[in-house]
Amino acid sequence: MRRDVFQAIADPTRRAILVLIASQAMTPNALADHFDMTRQAVSKHLRILTECELVKPDPSGREIYYHLDATRMKLIDQWLSQFKSMWENRFSELDNLLSTMKSTEK
Amino acid sequence: MRRDVFQAIADPTRRAILVLIASQAMTPNALADHFDMTRQAVSKHLRILTECELVKPDPSGREIYYHLDATRMKLIDQWLSQFKSMWENRFSELDNLLSTMKSTEK
DNA sequence: TATATTTGCAACCAATCGGTTTCATAAAAG
DNA sequence: CTTTTATGAAACCGATTGGTTGCAAATATA
């Protein structure tokens, strides 16, 4: 079972779930209304998100509200940060142009 | 064929490739030396990275140097940015504590 | 208490993934 | 010209993925 954050956000449904519960916690049933799949399929996504701690269950009676815990997203942000200078500096487009010119040389 | 950036960086080998070529362009053979898999397996990863434009081929004679193009990483950064406030503000840990206390109430 | 609702879990299934081996092609070197 | 080197593409394979259906358990409601 690979349960890392990068694999978790690879699936578009899981990304949509994270966006949905970012504004307010939701139950699996409520979430499932937003997708063209069964409640159980959404539940499986919630399990994966819970296992890698992007989401936390919040039981209330027989309902379970899932809320976002963005802490683990730091990991992605940190990994991404090592490349940030490559797209943030205003020369990056020039760099690309130059390397394209170089590679299309005879 | 799902070829989006999120799926591309989900694989640890592909993330390692991106880090390796970030400092300097490399050929598939040179890259394969860093992994415990065949040259062809690395080549398949390079194909995926090329298709979603995280990497660009740079032919030179019979060799092909692959270099990083970080432009597409903006997409991940942008998606991530909508959650950034949730882990950056100094109250987020208190928020988590409070919601944990609430959920463990009788 | 009997019934309905909310949920998680297990079994199953087709498609995709990440690796392999084999082969063809193009460029460099002898 | 022949051989070696660098590469991509194709066929294949087992494991994983993302969905399904069916079921059991716990809570709420009549």
Walkthrough of the structure:
- The structure is a homodimer of 106-residue chains.
- Chain A has 106 residues and is mainly alpha-helical.
- Chain A folds into 2 domains: 67 residues, Arc Repressor Mutant, subunit A; 31 residues, no CATH class.
- Chain A contains 6 helices and 2 strands; from the N terminus they run H-H-H-H-E-E-H-H.
- Chain A has a two-stranded antiparallel sheet.
- In chain A, strand 1 and strand 2 form a beta hairpin.
- The N and C termini of chain A lie far apart (48 Å).
- Chains A and B meet through helix 2, strand 1, helix 5 and helix 6 of A and helix 2, strand 1, helix 5 and helix 6 of B.
- Chain A binds a DNA duplex (30 and 30 nucleotides) through helix 4.
Low-confidence parts of chain A, pLDDT < 50 over ≥5 residues? none
| Secondary structure: helix percent of chain A | 55-70%
Q: Strand order, biggest sheet of chain A? A: 1-2
End-to-end Cα distance of chain A: 48 Å
Can you write the helix and strand succession of chain A as a string? HHHHEEHH
Task: Please work out how many helical segments of chain A DSSP would assign.
Answer: 6
Rg of chain A: 19 Å
Please tell me the CATH architecture of the largest domain in chain A by its name: Orthogonal Bundle
At the first level of CATH, the class of the largest domain in chain A is Mainly Alpha
